[in-house]
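INFO worker-7 received task bundle
INFO bundle size: 2
INFO processing item 0
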Amino acid sequence: MLERMLEVILLTLLSDAEKSMQKTVEVVDKEFASLRAGRATPALLDKIMVQYYGAPTPINQMANINVPEARLLVIQPWDKNTLPDIEKAILKSDLGITPASDGNVIRLAVPQLTKERRTELVKVIKKKAEEGRVAIRNLRREANDGLKNQQKNGDISEDDLRRLQDEVQKLTDKYIKEIDALFVAKEKEIMTI
């Protein structure tokens, strides 16, 4: 009975580590999506918050966002009175695009990226990818510390500890490879003219 309980605890520890690593990869993927790569995508506006009735609100919760052309975003607010607030929020953001409004919709023309800006963006995504890898390594350390505590308490043998640490390492390698693949894909997208 005690052995079965211990097995459940260890499986939970591994499962929790894997879920946390998966969430880290998802966060890195969202970070990459929010970076401008010369193409219009609604994800560019994800981090921009608009003051709407005193509360910061994402643009996608107050308007329809369409991509009629490869380099054009059209924002159509549900409440026309919010148009100036959305424009101000876009101007204050680090997006680097000037909104054009006709009183009904806001158009964002995404400019072609310069070579210098592309190189800069690659450095940014490289940094974000490394932050993701570090987060996954920290999760590995936490899982291994939990396993070592189980071994210190006499709950698992040294052989079990090594076997479980190998499992944690396999998870770590798997999710770091996923981050590397996301990085390579985003780098290719940014550098493609």
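INFO item 0 finished
INFO processing item 1
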Amino acid sequence: MRCTYDDLVQEASTVSVDGWDFSWLDGRASEERPSWGYARLLAGRMAGARAALDIQTGGGEILAGLPTLPPVTVATESWPPNLQLAASRLRPRGAWVVADDEAPRLPFGDGVFDLVSSRHPVATWWAEIARVLRPGGSYFSQQVGPWSVAELTDHFLGPHDGSGRDPERAREAAESAGLEVVDLRHERLRMEFHDIGAVIYFLRKVIWIVPGFSVERHQDKLRALHERIEAEGPFVAHSSRFLIEARRPGGQAA
């Protein structure tokens, strides 16, 4: 039996969106993954590090899935529900989970980490990252790139400028903070949304795609998109991702 529009809206509006586990979307939406394999590459770097910091860790999903963590591993997060999830996953692995603000300063001393990582940070605090890295230490991050899921943003808000997350701007910011960029890659990846519930769940979870999104505020656009999916099939969009690795000069790399 096919779900009605109201059924889909009700389900997607009430399910929890805590953490960065997207398994609720299995069978309802899909997204190509970047060719570089962030978790695999991060695992190799973590295995060789002595002290590591993961910024904006979400629910700790990425770190918890790594086979080896450094002797000193710290994760930061600002949203209370995610803090609880991260603590439940990471403390049994011997990692510390620290509450921080959504803006600098990082609550750590100078030069204490030989690896800093972050997957999909809302903002990158380049000067702070450079400060807490040891000489020879590295920042390793997968980030949201320009025009990511622009098709959804345009549907709900109209044409917009999505160029603010340009990888070359990240390079310039890293270099301005005194870091040397040793790797920078960018890919655009196909996404498909198979029902309007998947769209609602995604927009509730990834809040920067349509700032201020709510079912009530955007009900006309939601119903129009539902009818489009019903008539034409999955709504296709494209995510944008870039990988950046930047090293603090001096010393020996981790």
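INFO item 1 finished
INFO post-check item 1: The longest strand covers residues 180-193.
INFO post-check item 1: The chain has a mean pLDDT of 95.
INFO worker-7 idle
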